What does this fold into?
Amino acid sequence: MLWEALTLQAGYNAALVAVGAGLLGTAAGAAGTFLFLRKRALVSDAISHATLPGVALAFMVMVAFGGDGRWLPGLLLGSALSAGLGLLAVQWISDRTRLNEDAAIGAILSSFFGLGVVLLTVIQTMSSGRQAGIEDFLLGATAGMLMSEATTIAVGGGLAVAATLLLRRPMTVVAFDPGYAAASGIDVRRIDLATMALVLAVTIIGLKVVGLILIVALLIIPPVAARFWSERAGHVATIAGVIGGVSGYLGAAISASAPDLPTGPIVVLVAFAVFCLSLAFAPGRGVLAAFLRHRRFQRRVHLRQGLLALAQGQPVLERYTLRLLARAGLARGDGVPTEAGRAQAARALRDEARWSEARKLHAHETAAGRYDGLTPIEAVLTPDEIRELDRRIGAPHAVTP
Amino acid sequence: MKAIKLAASEGRAVHPAGEGALVVRGLTVSYGEAPAVFSADLTVPEGSMTAIVGPNGAGKSTLLKAALGVTPRLSGQAHFFGEPLGQVRRRVAYVPQRASVDWDFPTRVLDVVLMGLWRDLGLLRPVRARHRQAALDALARVGMADLSDRQIGQLSGGQQQRVFLARSLAQGADLYLLDEPFAGVDAATERAIIDVLKALRDEGRTVVAVHHDLSTVADYFDRVALMNVRVITEGPVADAFTREALQEAYGGRLATVQIDQLRLGAT
It folds into this structure.
């Protein structure tokens, strides 16, 4: 069943839902990247929670006019209106008062959500039975989704991806250096507003699939995971789009494979798994890579210190240093240097002497700034510069055991 | 609101754009009630190198930002080459304070410099070889060509400042407005930056820098504007960088001994 869902063989509807969720995830990851880079990730939480009263009110209005309360475009319109209102409220509070954005988000998020829950309760007492489906907006449910709904989600996701692609340059400049952006003619407020509109669009498209409580995860987890893999904003957005897309697709497929499995939590858990893998194994910024880098650095420091100690005829005291020297064949277990060890020790000492001479010379000021006790001076100065240093130091000294 | 009334009550006639690369008239900026910059006038002739000098909190950076429209102004005008900024943006480059951005941002040195070409690239035009070459040329001018692939988080403070300068060079502007370009940079970088700025001036371009090291004002710049919320004096260093003006700008914060050690204009 799961395999069939994954390979789009679980029926046309399930396939469409999975593709739609994938496109939604791509849009969320890409748009979310610019929110994350602008350091306003939490705004998406305010936006998504502020959709609930809109959904409930739209339902009530549609029922009051004798229509079907569950008509999706109507519900989405209501959610967009109340989310926009919440966003404006956050903006207004942080612009006009001394409160910062965090505080404004906290206040608006909980108030709007509270109002939404109250309205949901009213709906339940008002017309039992017909409200079924409204709660699905909290956690998302793709089971029994209508074809037209799935198409709406897929098209909306595609449009959001296109809009993100169009705005990626100004959004990057604004996120990195808003002052420069403003001075070079980018309307920072308008770009920020466009970013928010994108996030709002993704949130609303995602209500039915992921639900309003967890859509924030689909906007934020993919960029944060993608950040481990790249040092370029454009690539981070692309990778985040891929991670979001895969999460959405897999999440929808998995939840379609078993009855009553809510889609939102599954999508988020898939995204979180990718995040954990990235955190652990990404080269460069990953935890494992950082650990290995640290160990390698530590070994180099110990070896260098050991060699310098040998060169100066001092005893090597640390056991880890001794073990490293012995393993490299530079010293015996008792700390007496081997032939190779004596040669390398002499070279290390020579390098130190060159460095200390270079530091005294004004001409090598920049190069001397790169001294870290490990980099050989050949990596920094040219051979003729080093010959000049050697001339100042004098003849090399042999190392005696 | 109070500040608006004060500025208005000065009854200053706001001149239309005069001569000069940058002409500021009656500029007032306020965060809250107290003005950070009050009714500032500044005239920067083309081809000059001007230092904006004053104590901490004197509104030096704010003056630049307000002239560029980065910070909203309460009153006053700024004209660039006789036009409002919107008409001549391409000719004006801004180098913000290095500390104003997050250097862990995922971007490479070359990408930051390419941001200087953003007006040419627009939303969708692809980055072509000539854009990349322009960015690399700008990096070469500040001695950073070798580091173009580096992630910006790995740069030293001086290198960060050079990248910011390169971004403005790539833009090919005629007026450069720099906010504290020498703050927290090493001696070699300071020399490299001042060499580039002087070369720009020698090409007939105009440089304005917020500066805080009084001892180098006379060596680096040919004009100075001393300010402390108001602009106290402005003009050639020989005329404007005087003991009286310094004392007025800094008050008791600058000991007489310190002033004695400076190369000053005529007193």
